[in-house]
Design brief:
The chain is of the alpha/beta class. The chain contains 10 helices and 7 strands. The C terminus is likely disordered.
Length: 327
């Protein structure tokens, strides 16, 4: 065979191999993904027109991601209800919304101070909002606290407090909102979890446990509410550049008071808020908002648990070693 013919035959062979890989390996994964993307885009455009005038209750709205969510949904024309413990900070957010978005047709935000750990008072807070607006279309369970401590050094009271705020507070508020949503046959519960609700890392046992519990609650609630047309969206972000680590608890319950490097280099609250709005508009059930590393950890945890456990053990040793040097 001549060199030219050999070259042509090789090209044909490589071309056949390329198309075989594309048709047998790539297409089964990329085609459904592309279809879901197109469906999501159509849904987003459709539901964006229905969003103005919706009543959106946001917990943890006094700062960080909650504040960014308030701006995002306010700009979308929603009737925003700001909820958190610090009334003065909620009033600041309310004033900022009205001052910064004067050219947008909006509704005056409502401030409702509440403490997620006071679960018995939450139904009355929901009734207060219902008396003002008559309905709650979207509840965004965003408020929460974190912990920086190993399991052995974490007092049981701290475990209880984190679970009370992050899990039981969200559950109690959701249960208080659900009857009116079920009666109207429409509504949405959005729970802001964490990638640590998908897989656990060292020195976050209390926080991870509360987010794992929230994941399970949402999965059960989503199935139960399907017949009532009440939707449930679970959002699992990675690190966000907020004051979460600064306000986190230590094992003794005191304030951690430091911003971790991972938190400082995290996504901006505004960026994550826009992703959450998009997830709501696209009617997504479970969405992870995170870079490559956390996504890889998630799949390693499920596809190769021994490797994941080894990596986490190494990480725990590294953190313990760094803590010893700091001491």
């Amino acid at each position: 065979m001549k060199p030219l013919e050999e070259s042509q035959a090789l090209c044909r062979s490589e071309g056949s191999l390329f198309w075989w890989i594309l048709s047998t390996i790539c297409l089964p994964f990329t085609l459904p993904h592309l279809i879901f993307k197109i469906i999501g885009f159509i849904r987003e455009r459709k539901y964006r027109e229905c969003l103005p005038g919706k009543v959106v209750l946001i917990t943890g709205a006094s700062s960080g991601l909650g504040e960014a969510l308030a701006h995002t949904f306010f700009l979308a024309g929603c009737k925003v209800v700001l909820a958190a413990r610090r009334k003065d900070e909620l009033e600041r957010v309310r004033k900022d919304l009205l001052a910064l978005h004067t050219t947008v047709v909006t509704h005056s935000p409502v401030v409702v101070p509440l403490d997620l750990s006071d679960i018995n008072a939450l139904p009355n807070k929901v009734n207060e909002i219902l008396q003002i607006h008559g309905q709650i279309d979207i509840l965004i369970n965003n408020g929460g606290i974190s912990v920086r401590s190993d399991c052995l050094s974490t007092a049981l009271d701290v475990d209880i407090k984190v679970m009370l705020v992050n899990y039981f507070g969200s559950v109690a508020l959701s249960k208080a909102c659900l009857p009116s949503m079920i009666k109207r046959k429409q509504g949405r519960i959005v729970c802001v979890s964490s990638v640590q609700g998908k897989f656990s890392i060292p020195h976050r046992s209390a926080y991870g446990a509360s987010k794992h519990a929230l994941q399970a609650f949402c999965d059960s609630l989503r199935a139960e509410m399907a017949e009532h047309n009440v939707r449930v969206t679970l959002v699992s972000p990675g690190y966000i550049n907020t004051a979460l680590s600064l306000n986190a608890l230590t094992g003794t319950g005191s304030q951690y008071g430091r911003t971790d490097s991972t938190t400082a280099s995290g996504a901006s609250p505004e960026q994550v808020a826009k992703f959450i709005l998009k997830a709501v508009l696209r009617d997504e059930d479970d969405v992870m908002i995170a870079p490559v590393a956390p996504r890889a950890a998630y799949w390693i945890r499920h596809l190769c648990p021994p490797l994941y456990f080894w990596i986490m053990a190494r990480r725990a040793q590294k953190v313990d070693s760094s803590a010893s040097k700091d001491d």
